[in-house]
Design a protein that fits this description.
about 230 residues, alpha+beta, Structural Genomics Hypothetical 15.5 Kd Protein In mrcA-pckA Intergenic Region, Chain A, Alpha-Beta Plaits, 3 domains, 9-stranded mixed β-sheet, 6 helices, 15 strands, elongated
Amino acid sequence: MRLAKYLAHCGVASRRAAEQIVVDGRVAVDGRPVTDPARDVGPDSVVTVDGRRLAGPEGRVVYAVNKPAGVVSTASDTHGRPTVVGLIADARVRLYPVGRLDADSDGLILLTNDGELANLLTHPRYGVPKTYRARVGGGPVGARALSRLREGVALEDGPTAPAQVRKLAPDTIELTIHEGRNHQVRRMCDAVGHPVRQLTRVAFGPLRLGELAPGGHRRLSGAEVERLRAQCL
């Protein structure tokens, strides 16, 4: 197994972050510093990070979390704000979020110690769909605004791909996008004259938020994880 993948499976970081940890010279294999993330690691190799020996790959887990607004989607926060990782107090492994969800937004976010899966689910190549429910201002949402969202909206960093959109109420729409730009749904709605007042992610790939309570979490079954993985094939 390649070293960066081994670190990800040990729960050190996502695979991309693990590659940087290796390049930074923080990893040693069998007592010798290694800076090549592609270095092969065998089952009997002794791997250390910052001098701490790793126990070996953890059992891989994925949790669904209903993130409340005001909670940041990071593993830690320098400003002392609550984090999504802190919502799973009973986790026995190191977890990190799969992608981001704005601090002001709520809804479904995934946490895992499987760096390979996290990388697949967030890679632009696979375009894993994410669905949001947005309550907006600017008056009732009209046909022209819906059409613009479905066609793709011109933003300062380029036009968006077409979104799937349906109207749920005069001031509420549901959008499915396949991109992962910063604040994308909020910017799209702003661009068509309907600033977001409340934003909830209700689905990630084949997973739905369902009846999961705000701040609650549940561990995904093996079948659910495989359905997520199938989104990237």
